[in-house]
């Protein structure tokens, strides 16, 4: 079958429709995520545990007073248990801890303190800082979705191909690879 101008026009229309759907999806994702951050009394996440874990990356020798990095990951744990994430996750959060100045001894993400030993002194909830952290995570989430959608689009898997149903001339949309 020859590619006519009409066929290319329909293919472009499908690509434009896919772009609109992707943009609407991202806007809905943004709105829902923002609503969930702002509407609830608490939007808990494992930030407390991450900050506890990264606070144990530095250790101080009791005799010499010299600080060193702790590469014994079996000693890193938080209020949710032992560290289970890869090293890069821990080092990224170590950087976030340094940037935010998070105090894992006094600060918490919780409105109601957990019934865990050592948690009772965590009485401060830095609302503005937590909002900024959650907004940052939301932007990272949206960036990940954009990269995933872009990858699918470039692979031809996102744009639906147009196929004629036999004998009736009705278009059928299917999630199949589009040849370019």
Q: If you average the pLDDT, what whole number results?
A: 76
Shape: elongated
Care to count the β-strands?
6
Percent of residues in helical segments?
A: 40-55%
Low-confidence stretches: 160-180
Largest sheet: 2 strands, antiparallel
Spatial ordering of strands, largest sheet: 1-2
Number of helices, where a helix is a run of at least 4 consecutive DSSP H or I residues: 4
Class from secondary-structure proportions:
mainly alpha
Give the topology string: H per helix, E per strand.
HHEEEEHHEE
Distance separating the two termini: 15 Å
Percent of residues in beta strands?
5-15%
Helix and strand topology:
Layout: H1 5-39, H2 47-55, E1 58-60, E2 67-69, E3 77-78, E4 81-82, H3 87-100, H4 127-155, E5 161-164, E6 171-174
Describe the structure.
With 180 residues, the chain is mainly alpha-helical. The protein has 4 helices and 6 strands. The protein has helices at 5-39, 47-55, 87-100, 127-155, and strands at residues 58-60, 67-69, 77-78, 81-82, 161-164, 171-174. A two-stranded antiparallel ribbon has the order 1-2. A two-stranded antiparallel ribbon has the order 3-4. A two-stranded antiparallel ribbon has the order 5-6. The longest helix has 35 residues, at 5-39. The protein is elongated and about 80 Å long. Residues 160-180 have low confidence and may be disordered.
């Amino acid at each position: 079958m020859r590619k006519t101008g009409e066929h290319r026009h329909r293919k472009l229309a499908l690509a434009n429709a896919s772009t609109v759907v992707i943009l609407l999806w991202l806007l809905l994702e943004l709105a829902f995520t923002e609503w969930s951050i702002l509407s609830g009394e608490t939007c808990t996440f494992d930030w407390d545990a991450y900050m506890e874990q990264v606070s144990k990356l530095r250790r101080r020798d009791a005799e010499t007073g010299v600080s060193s990095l702790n590469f014994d990951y079996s000693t890193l744990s938080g209020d949710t248990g032992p560290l289970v994430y890869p090293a890069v996750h821990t080092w990224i959060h170590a950087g976030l801890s340094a940037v935010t100045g998070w105090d894992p001894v006094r600060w918490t993400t919780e409105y109601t303190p957990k019934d865990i030993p050592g948690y009772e002194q965590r009485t401060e909830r830095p609302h503005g800082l937590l909002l900024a952290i959650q907004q940052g995570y939301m932007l990272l989430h949206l960036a990940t979705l954009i990269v995933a959608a872009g990858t699918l689009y470039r692979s031809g898997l996102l744009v639906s191909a147009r196929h004629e149903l036999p004998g009736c001339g009705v278009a059928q949309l299917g999630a199949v690879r589009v040849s370019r």
